[in-house]
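In practice, a research group might receive sequence data for several interacting partners and want a quick structural hypothesis before committing to experiments. The following worked case mirrors that situation: the sequences arrive first, and a predicted assembly follows.
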Amino acid sequence: MSFAQPSLMPSFTRPASRVAIVRCGSYDLDLSTLLFEALREFDLPVGGKKVLLKPNFVEPDPEGIVNTHPAVVGAVREAFLRLGAGSVRVAEGPGHERDSEAIVETIRLSDFLGPLHDLFVDLNLDEVHAVKLRTHASRLRELYLPGAVLEADYIVSLPKLKTHHWVGVTLSLKNMFGIVPGCCYGWPKNVLHWAGITPSILDINSTVRPDFAIVDGIIGMEGNGPIQGSPKASGVLILGDDPVAVDATGARVMGLDPTRIDHLAKAAILLGHMQAEKIRQLGESVASVKIPFTVLPAFQKLVASNGQ
Amino acid sequence: MSRIPCPESRVRMTLGQIRDLRCLEFLLTNQNSDGGWGYHPALPSAVEATASVLLALNATHQAPAEACARARTWLVQAQRTDGSWPAFPGQPQGCWVTSIASHALHLQGGARNAVERGHRWLLNEWPAESALWWRVRQTLFSSRATRQNSSLCGWNWTPGTASWVEPTAHALLFLRSLPANMHTSQGVKRRQSAERMLYDRMCPGGGWNSGNPLVYGVAGVPRVGPTAWALLALREDEERAEIQMSLNWLQGAYGTIHGAASLALAYRCLTAYGRRVSPLAPALGKLYPQNRFFENVLTNAWIILALNEVGNMAVPTAGKAAIR
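A structural hypothesis for the assembly, expressed as tokens:
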């Protein structure tokens, strides 16, 4: 693994992060060109690199509401190839559904990527290696992680813009739960829940911090996410070189205060920037695309006060 | 495509017919030199993959004895000193694959000691919700997010975590396969609690997901895999309304399945209960060219198990009535 930015760096010493918000109202648009143009602004060090895309594939959902939309996955892959990546594979280890084939066939991923057998890696069933975690926020000290993740030069987290009924939002940091292999930990990966969801998010991302994050917010999910919520047409793609900054921006677009989202607030200590003044905003402003998401009553406290 | 036996025909699939789907050939070709199987060709041998292939080879009754013997030896060597099996050899902790490994070795025969040790470990492995502190916490701070009876204990995926549907189903399938003289009173109690736990975790309209039937008052959506495993584990309760309701759900979902593993599991389950479903092979034949089932060893093993379901899930050695 090699990272564009160090995983762990106190926020006050970390250079400003860059996040771009791109308006995009439909999956039928030329997403590849849109993303290529946006990604070019970042001058990413991906030439000849093995890039791994980590979408959020949860369950077979033909409606395109639950999972990262395959059109976005396909467009991101194409954009990274145009940027000179040596290879771009798609990898996911769904947390509840063992049959990854059922998910990718239901969402018709191959329509956007072509034949999948050499492109898609089921992280639940890959070979595994013991990895010492770089922080000890949870009581986990090491995790078995898939070879495909450890061998990648550049990891891109590709979540969906969704609420989450346990941690408020599921964006690029929470999405990394999917790299933990079900063959070792089960479906769901209950060991992460017992170790604490927020501490586990921190430990996983401190050890395998995504180099880049792109949030599919063209249609998000509000209410009882991440599976049973309602679709929310949000019309944005949010991308950046700091997963914490991307998630904080995503939360602001959803009308939520990132400082009140436990795992984001804690991630901002060592993993990236949450404060708006530390995020160099490209493309659209948050205010111009903000579209408040409804949340479960238990998460009403996350809703940003007026003007934030 | 070969003719696939319908439940009524009670005809066992021949080796030639299975070979038409190339599943058996795929498995035999991709056995690792150490005797085990990885989840995919050329990956390190894994306990679940090896045990599942062994179950499949056992179901065909026509697999090469040498391949089975090597797999059996690998599994026995992978067992930990405490009787459990880890997901991969050398890992410091046993887990749910102990049920599958024990089951496979029991059906194969010839590894009685390993099976008995696996059996003992399973009976002594309690989920986290059985702990006193957890029960006190549940009593004092009962969660409004989920609805479940935490006094009912099944089996967990990994030690120190909670009961879930699929590992509980695997444990029940193994326990059910044991002869009457291995049914201890502790085992009977665990089995009864686990069966009740499965019913408690059933989704309101029938079927199962991983184990959350209700979250924030919203009914959980059943999934094919957990539903099929739970139904296979509860097969002796065929007359219960919950079982029939869940079978109806699975039968309705059958035509919408896009994954070979789910399709094979659903077919295996529905035919075990004598439900009429469209033949498996043509549906698999449509899926295969798209991605070759991702060359997934488990999927191929489950297909063989599904095609051999009739007769393979016969009345257990010791009927339920005999052990209660």
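Before designing any experiment, note the following. Chain A has one domain: 11-302. Chain A has eleven helices and twelve strands.
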